Amino acid sequence: MIAEIQESWKQHLESEFDKPYFKDLMTFIASEYENNQCFPPKDQIFSAFNTCTFEDLKVVIIGQDPYHGFGQANGLCFSVNEGVKHPPSLVNIFKEIETDLKEAYPITGNLERWAGQGVLLLNATLTVRAHEAGSHQKQGWESFTDAVIKIISEKKKNVVFLLWGGYAKKKVKLIALDKHKVITSGHPSPLSANRGYWFGNRSFSKTNLYLNEIKKATIKW
Question: Which domain of life is it from (predicted)?
């Protein structure tokens, strides 16, 4: 599976691959995929890295778990495959884009178009067993994705981190605030959004305003 990670990332992550936790994680994942229905498909586990190069990276969005329904997860947080019904959190993300940017509601829920512009769509846990939310948590993925955030923080500058919800906000301790931009908000899930913690956060226009200030191409959300 490691071989499938794009070279631009692999050179920065090599030290993680040799650590005992990561080897144990890969053994666990191989067994899970062999004995259970798991998502995303095995060849899409590292899609977040393979659709956004390290060099092009401008924005990081942090999710928690992949969708655990059949045909939904494609390796990018909050994203679903072409033609799949938009899950509630994604619906609320698109509604915020509508009001924030005065854009039409997107037809497709596949967020590869964001990744191709330099948005890393990173779940803290990259895999899940079908219909069992959180089933692959605390197996090592969090150690790996925390390392990813630290490496981005250390080796790049002027990256926008979008931290939505309590879980993502805890990752702020991994980010050098003196050289990166952090934008926080409630989570786009219905529970949070309906309590007034999501809508009106303007994450998307704020991101583009910052990118414009540092003379980088803005994101076509």
Answer: Bacteria
